[in-house]
Amino acid sequence: MTRTARAILRKDLRIELRTKESVPAMTLFAITVYVLFHFGLDRDSLDGELASGVLWVTLLLAAVIGVSRLFAAEREQGGIDGLLLAPVDQTALFVAKAAAMFLFLTAVELVAVPAFALLLLGPGLGGALPELLAVLALGNLGIAALGALVAALAAETRAPELIVPLLLLPLLVPVLIACAQATEPLFRQDAGPEDLGRWLGLLTLYDVVFVLLSVAVFDFLLED
Amino acid sequence: MAAIELERLERRYGERVALAGVSARVEEGQTLAVLGGNGAGKTTLLRVLAGLLRPHGGSARVVGAALPGERWKLPARVGYLGHEPLLYRELSGRENLRYHAALHSVPHSRLETVLAALEIDHRADEPVRDLSRGLVQRLAIGRAILHDPPVLLLDEPRANLDPSAAELVEPLIGRSSGRTRVVVSHDVRSALEESDVALGLKAGRLAPVDAELYR
């Protein structure tokens, strides 16, 4: 399975590097939304739950773009048939697609989070950076696992671009709540991350549940 | 044991019947020609045999695998060449075949052998989107035979190939390859010449292979 997953992931990353379709679009979208918030709220700096909410809602919406494109090459160039015609464990496909989505999100955040801090964040990232990185990593894992599942579900429908946000966003509400709650104390001027452990635990639990659920059902999604 | 056995095979798309009552038997090493007009069900039959579509009735056995229950046995035993080349346009020919080789656990040396046999090794590092249709078809043939399957399911295999390329691929996918083959073709005369068994389809049902087949 590892070898197959590596081959699919390598292929996806190579196609993304050449087409530059997903990551630049997701990044530009996130930065544009932060600029819109900057002017729309008419505030130079946010903190606490407002800052945390703006950061995560924007990242989730940017993720929708990536998830919509996650099976695009398969859908448009017959790759699903290619996978069904090979002795491929569908779990390897799930692992590869989730890993690709995780890497796409990480690449987006490398630009989008500093842009958010520059445009909107009052307290600055400084001392809370390691904790924020942990929240981002766990959030990305949950989004990537669910994203791969929803992308596969939508891949064989007529309008995946419509199906993906309708399915993905409601399912991501628990991730949004946990990520926003875990991030909120990190963005407060006056308080430390007292609830961080609880929310990170919830995020980890959510990630484990969705990874296991996705692995269990993924086998049945692409077949006729 | 027959390589392919179909007994009153059925397949529908919603209410529309695509195949009904299709029976056939192909022995190992034989070639079955599937003939019929547009929309007769030829491609559907090929996709059912490849395990890409689930049969809705009757029975189908391909190299011993009963469909759809034993679909998982098929990928190693069947090579499928459909209308689409199943190649990624942004990747080169070699990258595409290397990807499929990894999915099939085929060694790298086999990949180079196939590229050389198809005489495309000198263009194999160009993106597929830059290649002519004929070269893409050759690559698609390479993809279908990469894992050296005993059964080939071929939908218009010589489409876009010039006469010399058609001759080039003959030992790989032609009668001389020794493989069991199911060939869909609109070229009735050459299909009948290279087949042991012929199957006519009209509106998804068996029909005699005669002049009426295309009316």
Give a quick rundown of the structure.
Chain A is mostly helical. Chain A is 78% helix and 0% strand. Helix content of chain B is 27%, strand content 27%.
Describe this structure in words.
The complex is a heterodimer of chains A (about 220) and B (about 220). Chain A has helices at about 1-20, 20-40, 50-70, 70-75, 80-85, 90-120, 130-155, 160-170, 175-185, 195-220. Chain A is mostly helical and about 220 residues long. Chain A has one domain (about 1-220). Chain A starts with a helix and ends in a 6-residue tail after the last helix. Chain B is of the alpha/beta class and about 220 residues long. Helices cover about 25% and strands about 25% of the residues of chain B. In chain B, helix 2 (about 95-105) runs parallel beside helix 4. Classes of the chains: A mainly alpha (about 220), B alpha/beta (about 220). The interface of A and B includes residues 7, 81 and 86 of A.
Q: What's the average pLDDT of chain B?
A: 93
Number of strands of chain B: 10
Number of helices of chain B: 6
Listing every helix as H and every strand as E from the N terminus to the C terminus, the arrangement of chain A reads HHHHHHHHHH
CATH class of chain B: Alpha Beta
In CATH, the architecture of chain B is 3-Layer(aba) Sandwich
Low-confidence spans of chain A: none
Euclidean distance between termini CA atoms of chain B? 36 Å
Question: What's the SSE blueprint?
Answer:
The complex is a heterodimer of chains A (224) and B (215).
Chain A lengths: L1 H18 L2 H19 L7 H22 L2 H6 L1 H6 L5 H30 L9 H27 L4 H12 L1 H11 L12 H23 L6
Helix pairs in contact in A: 1-6, 2-3, 2-6, 3-6, 3-7, 3-8, 3-9, 6-7, 6-10, 7-8, 7-9, 7-10, 9-10
Chain B lengths: L3 E10 L2 E11 L4 E5 L6 H8 L7 E6 L2 E3 L10 E4 L11 H11 L4 H10 L15 H13 L5 E5 L7 H11 L6 E5 L3 H6 L3 E6 L2 E3 L8
Parallel strand pairs in B: 3-8, 3-9, 6-7, 7-8
Antiparallel strand pairs in B: 1-2, 1-4, 4-5, 9-10
